[in-house]
Amino acid sequence: MSGGFALSAHTRKVRFAEKIAKSLLWLAAGLTMGTLLVIIGYIVYRGLVSDLRIQYNVLPSGSEILTTEDAADKGIMVIVNSNIRIDDIQIGEVTDLFSGEIDNWGAISEQDIDVRVFGHDAGSAVCEIFESLVFIDQTDYADEAVFADQDKQVIESVANTAGAIGYISAASRDKLQGSRAKPVEVRHLSIAVSPTVLEVRNGTRLHYITGEQIRDIFSGRHTNWSEVGGTDLPIKTAVFPQGSRIHREFTEIAFAPGDTLAAQTVLVNTASELAEFLTQNPGAAGFVYHNDALRYELPLVNIERRELELNLSSAFILEEPRRAGRVGGISSIILNTFFMIAITLILAGPVGVAAAIYLTEYARKNLLFEIIRFGTETLAGVPSIVFGLFGFILFVMYLNIGVGLLSGTLTITFMILPTIIRASEEAIKSVPVSLREGSLALGATKWQTITRVVVPVAIPGILTGLILGIGRAVGETAALLFTMGSDYRLARDFLSSARVMSVHLYILVREGISFERAFATGTILIIIILLISFTTNKLIGRMVRMRG
Known about the structure:
The chain is of the alpha/beta class and about 550 residues long. It is about 55% helix and about 15% strand. The strands form 5 sheets. Strands 2, 3, 5, 6, 7 and 8 form a 6-stranded mixed β-sheet that branches. A 4-stranded mixed β-sheet has the order 10-14-12-13, sandwiched between helices. Strands 1-15-11 form a 3-stranded mixed β-sheet. Strand 12 (about 235-240), helix 7 (about 245-255) and strand 13 (about 265) form a beta-alpha-beta unit. Helix 11 runs antiparallel to helix 16 and helix 15 packs antiparallel against helix 16. The relative contact order is 0.09. The model has no long low-confidence stretch (mean pLDDT about 90).
């Protein structure tokens, strides 16, 4: 009775221990999968969507129509060729584009397209309004600017010229219909402040404000700069008269329906009056056209703007990179990656499988065998940068192949061979001995048994080893930097320097070119690895079913 009770108690303890062990295993597996999903999910999200908060010295939104108070009924519009991927632009960028300071759209739209400028003849009303709004002091047009006397001619020139930018009168907007020219919104309003607002006091300084905070400042909901991250300084606001165009623009952009200006505010009629008010009143602020602020040297506060847009686009995949990857896409880099994968498979696959067959079927278990086995296992754990140094010395310097696709793939082949050999060995060993014996009993030679019985049965495991090796090769960076180079153009031959996706991602981050483009590249890299793994698993499953 007591023995049965003791046995029962022991059984309960064993079962309790098993439950704890299983729970810990499930917890570990869950944490591992959860962490993996979070990492992949974050990378993919950042790769698909660009969600940035950038600070500018102009308001987050603007207007398609620009004009002056003296010619409020004669506005102008800035237009660009429809192949330019922008919907709005800062007034300072407009000035730089028309003056030739920016001669390539890569600085604005990440497109490697030269800027072509089109304007109106000097002395025309449209030209005078444009120059008064856009040009400052002695600023003049770019040397290669082309001028016309009618809006229609400017529209046709902009529509038919890649990278073109021009301006027309607002009354001619309907003429843009059906053409390859489009208007862009110009962000040209700024918030000017007293110099005291931007001073450092007690370790505190106003770095930027948001669009919501602008509304709250001018509506009177915020009365002290400390409420928006600045110093302890009362806010004093100045505004232009209600009937003025700048007043209407500001309230349309900054205010929500139902919002009104603060009761305690000061009216100013000109930018010079605003400059005087800001100088004489600590903590003062006012809205002003950006170029007027530059003319009167008014301090401007930075304004945060959220830019949410599609990051991974068809253009990014299909276009070639330009300017060290700062503009354009990564089409040539994707192709270089596939070239590297294909050549590595051709080189490493047969050699790795052949080595595994020799070690499992022919090699004698002697000292030489142990040395080979030890060397294989050791090489599997050697850091990739050591392989890179080895490949650089052997292939680039000693054999004089040079830095290029061939040197890189040969180095990667040596690096992944241990993985392929070990996986192929285990796959061959897992083939039942009875199959070998049955084949030999029927009169087949050892070679026929290996090639027609053992290897076909072991193919799923061999393919798994190849995928593991390719997975390591695709994500490799250090070894390829030494041996393959980093030319982002499409490899012309085996000796050409070439950049693969992992190296491109590394360069984008290391040189601070673009984190958004790095995440997009990482997303494509993950998708490629998943596609290779999915295709291989399907192929393995099909082989197993056919054999079953």
